[in-house]
Amino acid sequence: MRQLVVSALKGLNFVVRKVSAFTHFAQFAVQWGFHPRPEWFDHYLDQHWQHSAKNNGLWVERGVFSRMVLKPNSKMLEICSGDGYNARHFYSSAASTIIAIDFDKDAIPHARRYNSAPNITYLQHDIRNGLPPGPFDNIVWDAAIEHFTEAEIDKIMREIVQRLGQDGILSGYTLTEAKDGRKSNDLHEYEFKDKEDLRRFFTPHFKFVKVWETFYPTRHNLYFAASQMPIESFD
């Protein structure tokens, strides 16, 4: 009897997964197949469709790498938090409190609806107008630094340093520009040429900077972690 139930559930789940993959692909095609493209990405599209369809683990490694440098019971700030997927699924089980901010008027209601947790506070806020007062143990800036000009990045970096203090850690992700110099997204202000191009934005502000890269067929990814103290995860 048990085996019959398991077999029936497997069959049902197979159908549900196929339907879910199709509807999430359709959402992606409509949202990202036409201009203007959104400012933020719904990562359930990755979970339910793109991860399997394109054999692409990029969305997982982004959350994992920043999770690796989270301090125990961290008081955390995520800037440009988008849909809140990483805050909910990667950070909320390790941090004591998370303030997650994004300037987009549609991202925050979406995050509250689909990625809420008791220790996450989602706020609509443009970081060009300043950061929450802190202090914070960790700040994550994931898939968004490229949306700012060089001058804006420097200004925001100075505020991040103030909020982190002597042993806080900044981490995050971005991407390199295409070989022909074209931006991958019209909304990006500055795409980085390579690891050293990205590193130069951190070295004036942090004593310890780690930048590393991963490669996928359609994307060259850059990750970073920076602090005034050595980062134990990378010792």
Report on this model:
This protein has 235 residues and is of the alpha/beta class. The chain has 2 domains: 2-53; 58-234, Rossmann fold. Helices cover 37% and strands 20% of the residues. The protein has 7 helices and 7 strands, in the order αααβαβαββαβαββ. The chain has helices spanning 2-32, 44-53, 58-68, 85-91, 107-114, 150-164, 195-199, and strands at 75-79, 97-102, 120-124, 138-142, 169-175, 208-216, 219-227. A 7-stranded mixed beta sheet has the order 3-2-1-4-5-7-6, with helices on both faces. Helix 5 links the parallel strand 2 (97-102) and strand 3 (120-124). Helix 1 (2-32) packs across helix 2 and helix 3 (58-68) crosses helix 4. The longest helix is centred in the first third of the chain and has 31 residues, at 2-32. The model has no long low-confidence stretch (mean pLDDT 94).
Fold topology:
Layout: H1 2-32, H2 44-53, H3 58-68, E1 75-79, H4 85-91, E2 97-102, H5 107-114, E3 120-124, E4 138-142, H6 150-164, E5 169-175, H7 195-199, E6 208-216, E7 219-227
Parallel strand pairs: 1-2, 1-4, 2-3, 4-5
Antiparallel strand pairs: 5-7, 6-7
Class derived from helix and strand content: alpha/beta
- Overall 3D form: globular
Low-pLDDT parts are: none
Radius of gyration: 19 Å
Largest sheet: 7 strands, mixed
Number of strands: 7
Short description, anyone?
The chain is α/β, with parallel strands linked by helices and 235 residues long. The protein has seven helices and seven strands; from the N terminus they run H-H-H-E-H-E-H-E-E-H-E-H-E-E.
